């Protein structure tokens, strides 16, 4: 800043000297010295002659008194022009504080009236070192607070906030301390009396009882009778640091509190013991109960020996097959006493605690057995980890590697459970755990009354639809059917299988590749992005696409020419749908399918790419019924469920965790998308490959067929405005479907006929409701390459090598690359369209009958499903 600007900005008098002379730092006059001296400025001091004149009354200058006017300007200090505000003098440097030991300089304080000088005592200047005039807030309108708004706010708010937080913390600690002090000694709390425990009743929608959970099967054993093999197996699966931390887990407890103790809440063994063992925690499900459980667990960890806790836990935990405690579990799974279990069997006992309802009826070679074996491997690895931390626990790695997965005996429920009763019981127990946070042991012995949406008439019809349509169905065939109300998500019927003691639930648990029944999600993704039903695509076959290793063929390798999305859906044209998936991106398709209701786990069953339009992902009948229900419900997804009300033994209603979602649902896509997609699916039944599903009363039906590679799965998923039903056939071993008396198995024939048999009975007497007219939202553009006048029937001699990171380029015709002489990389197991270099692609001709995996199913163009290069 220039000398002139300093003079004008501050308005301070210069030291005695010429007007253009140099100034001291700070711009204040020096006492008894030339103006050009560079010493720090301060107030003028009297000279050595001490000629103070009548200024003596305030003491000499430099001793707390005030100086009179002097210099060339003739101002009193308090009459001198005020400093400009920050807004006027932006960029002006602040005055430096005086150095230690030096007299602070500054302006004289102004008096309160008439500008009169205030009298000051000798200590005034010392108290205000630096000499800057201090004014009360609001007295100086030119004073500017240069702090930001947040700093100004917190400067005022931090003290009250800190005090409030402190009070809350102290209060919380006091409350917890009082609650802990009043928590009884766990050794004095009464155990839940098995004689007082009641079975839970599960009822149909009409109020009639469907099944009960049965009697409690529990045999108490002493800790010394439980072998080390079982203790190690349970700890390895549930809590490996139990002996170091027998009380509670802070992180797990916080999760459990936030979720009201839902499944996966992370409770320790001690907390689980407290929940199952003590009668004060038998029925409640609230924050109060959770806090009481935590306090009892803490006190138990402090007052009880870990082995005592472990004994109570192992005698009360539920292991499935109606077995409570390790002794009952040993008999239920291995037909022997607990003390006779070996290490591998002990690991098994620990592994099934996580999902006792699902693991109790595991079929050899099934997906559930695969999940159980993964859990068993996890527990076995835990033995090694425990041994490394404590040589007295677990076993060495060499010993653990010698263990083999044990064989279990056949499940004998010990009572007469017929038909679908067992599947209903296990399904309800699973849903109570997921939606209500109730442990299987609580359900089986808590005396609850569970009301469901299941229709007993439709439950029977679900089984009849299979047996009457395909009476010679082989036992190894997985028959899945799920039917639900799209407006509420309530499951009305399902078909679990023939024997719940040996087969998992075919409809709710088992899955198979979706085939072309996945295409509606691709269609919805396109409609959401403005690609209308009248948009056209190249329907010729075969075609090469970026991101797909091999050319894509339609069923029977038929050329369809230029087709819109309605015709593409009705005839399930593969090439147009793969191009549509490229236009929307595969991720958008996955997002739509997940929002509609397909389980997220299914998106890990295959690699993501444009070929997901052909149904490479696996789905269950429940997934498909839920997903298609979102179309029928105007784009709003309703969570699927069969439990409508739960009442505990005291008559109190237990609320589900998803009550809010059940009220309004979650929008997956727009209503116009749902309307247009539904219209396209009505053409599948009216003019396409699903005409076998047309109902006899002529009511409108929308749906989609789907057949996977080599007919390993066959689907028909369809709906009316009131009811959605998904029917799927497959084999759990992944082999080709074989049904005596059926020469060709397709979703549009076999599965569609089963769907029709069920829906004819389900819709009998129901009002005929119409679907909304199509909106034809979005554009009517043309996508993909132009159909060739002469279709190319033969792909290139050698497939183009698949790139590690394939690009997906919308609306760009792929260029045919010349054959490459470089070696083709080996095929990945999850890439259906890759073939090893030794065989190369094969294009069947009419003279060359279709082989099992050649992409042709030998059927006419009314069916959409064609194996490897056909619809997936």
Inertia-based shape: globular
How far apart the termini lie comes to 79 Å
Mean pLDDT: 75
Work out the radius of gyration.
41 Å
- What percent of residues are in strands? 5-15%
Low-confidence stretches: 1-19, 21-139, 260-265, 790-872
Our count of helices gives 24
CATH architecture of the domain at 197-401: Orthogonal Bundle
Explain what this protein looks like in three dimensions.
With 872 residues, the chain is α+β, with helices and mostly antiparallel strands. Among the domains are: 1-110, no CATH class; 197-401, Biosynthetic peptidoglycan transglycosylase-like (Penicillin binding protein transpeptidase fold). It has 24 helices and 17 strands. It has a 5-stranded antiparallel β-sheet with strand order 7-6-17-16-15, sandwiched between helices. Strands 2-1-5-13 form a 4-stranded mixed β-sheet, covered by helices on one side. Strand 15 (702-707) and strand 16 (713-719) form a beta hairpin. The longest helix is centred in the N-terminal third of the chain and has 34 residues, at 149-182. 44% of the residues are buried.
């Amino acid at each position: 800043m220039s000398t002139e600007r300093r003079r004008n900005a501050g308005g301070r008098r210069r030291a005695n000297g010429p007007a253009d002379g140099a100034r001291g730092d700070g711009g204040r006059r020096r006492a008894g010295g030339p103006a050009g001296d560079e010493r720090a400025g301060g107030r003028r001091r009297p000279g050595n002659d001490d000629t103070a004149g009548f200024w003596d009354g305030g003491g000499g200058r430099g001793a707390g008194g005030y100086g009179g006017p002097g210099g060339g300007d003739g101002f009193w200090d308090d009459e001198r022009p005020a400093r400009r505000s920050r807004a006027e003098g932006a960029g002006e440097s602040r005055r430096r504080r005086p150095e230690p030991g030096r007299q602070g300089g500054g302006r004289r304080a102004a008096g309160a009236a008439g500008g009169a000088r205030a009298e000051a005592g000798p200590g005034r200047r010392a108290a205000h070192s630096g000499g800057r005039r201090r004014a009360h807030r609001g007295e100086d309108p030119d004073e500017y607070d240069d702090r930001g708004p947040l700093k100004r706010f917190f400067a005022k708010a931090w003290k009250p906030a800190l005090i409030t937080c402190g009070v809350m913390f102290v209060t919380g600690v006091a409350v917890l301390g009082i609650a802990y002090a009043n928590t009884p000694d766990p050794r004095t709390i009464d155990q839940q009396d098995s004689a007082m425990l009641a079975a839970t009743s599960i009822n149909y929608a009409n109020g009639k009882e469907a099944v009960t959970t049965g009697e409690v099967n529990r045999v108490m054993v002493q800790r010394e009778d439980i072998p080390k093999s079982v203790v190690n197996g349970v700890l390895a699966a549930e809590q490996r640091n139990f002996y170091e931390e027998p009380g509670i887990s802070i992180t797990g407890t916080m999760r459990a509190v936030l979720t009201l103790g839902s499944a996966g809440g992370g409770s320790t063994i001690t907390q689980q013991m407290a929940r199952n063992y003590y009668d004060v925690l038998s029925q409640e499900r609230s924050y109060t109960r959770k806090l009481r459980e935590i306090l009892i667990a803490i006190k138990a960890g402090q007052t009880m020996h870990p082995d005592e806790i472990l004994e109570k836990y192992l005698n009360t935990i539920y292991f499935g097959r109606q077995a409570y405690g390790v002794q009952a579990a040993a008999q239920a799974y291995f037909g022997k006493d607990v003390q006779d279990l070996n290490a591998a069997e002990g690991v098994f006992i620990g592994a099934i605690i996580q999902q006792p309802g699902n693991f109790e009826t595991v079929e050899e070679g099934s997906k559930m057995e695969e999940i159980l074996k993964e859990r068993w491997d996890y527990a076995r690895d835990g033995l090694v980890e425990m041994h490394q931390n404590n040589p007295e626990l677990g076993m060495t790695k060499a010993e653990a590697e010698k263990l083999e997965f044990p064989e279990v005996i056949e499940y004998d429920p010990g009572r007469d459970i017929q038909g679908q009763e067992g599947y209903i019981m296990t399904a309800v127990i699973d849903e109570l755990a997921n939606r209500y946070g109730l442990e299987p042991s609580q359900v089986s012995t808590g005396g609850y009354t569970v009301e469901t949406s299941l229709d007993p008439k439709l439950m029977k019809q679900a089984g009849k639809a299979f047996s009457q349509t395909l009476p010679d169905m082989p036992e190894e065939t997985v028959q899945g059917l799920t039917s639900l109300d799209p407006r509420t998500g309530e499951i009305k019927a399902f078909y679990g299988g023939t024997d719940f003691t040996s087969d998992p639930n075919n409809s709710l648990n088992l899955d198979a590749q979706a085939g072309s029944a996945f295409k509606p999600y691709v269609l919805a993704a396109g409609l959401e992005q403005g690609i209308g039903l009248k948009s056209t695509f190249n329907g010729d076959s075969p075609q090469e696409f970026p991101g797909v290793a091999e050319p894509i063929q339609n069923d029977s390798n038929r050329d369809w020419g230029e087709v819109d999305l309605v015709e593409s859906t009705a005839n399930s044209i593969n090439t147009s749908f793969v191009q549509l998936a490229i236009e929307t991106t595969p991720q958008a398709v996955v997002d739509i399918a997940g929002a509609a209701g397909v389980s997220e786990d299914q998106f890990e069953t295959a690699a993501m790419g444009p070929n997901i339009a052909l149904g490479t992902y696996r789905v269950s009948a429940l997934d498909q019924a839920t997903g298609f229900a979102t179309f029928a419900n105007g784009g709003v997804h309703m969570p699927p469920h069969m439990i409508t009300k739960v009442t505990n033994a005291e008559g109190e209603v237990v609320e589900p965790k998803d009550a809010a979602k059940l009220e309004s649902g979650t929008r997956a896509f727009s209503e116009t998308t749902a309307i247009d997609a539904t219209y396209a699916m009505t053409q599948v039944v009216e003019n396409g490959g699903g005409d076998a599903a047309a109902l006899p009363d002529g009511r409108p039906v929308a749906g989609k067929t789907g057949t996977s590679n080599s007919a390993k799965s066959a689907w028909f998923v369809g709906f009316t405005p009131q009811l959605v039903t998904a029917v799927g056939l497959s084999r759990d071993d992944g082999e080709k479907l074989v049904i005596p008396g059926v020469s060709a198995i397709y979703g549009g024939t076999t599965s569609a006929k089963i769907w029709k048999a069920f829906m004819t009975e389900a819709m009998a007497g129901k009002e005929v409701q119409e679907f909304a007219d199509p909106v034809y939202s979005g554009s009517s553009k043309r996508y993909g390459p132009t159909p060739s006048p002469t279709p190319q029937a033969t792909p290139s001699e050698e497939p183009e090598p698949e790139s590690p990171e394939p690009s997906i380029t919308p609306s760009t015709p792929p260029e045919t690359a010349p054959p490459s002489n470089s070696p083709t990389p080996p095929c990945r197991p999850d890439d259906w369209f890759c073939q090893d270099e030794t065989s190369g692609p094969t294009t069947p001709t009419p003279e060359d009958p279709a082989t099992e995996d050649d992409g042709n199913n030998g059927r006419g163009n009314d069916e959409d499903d064609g194996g490897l290069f056909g619809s997936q």
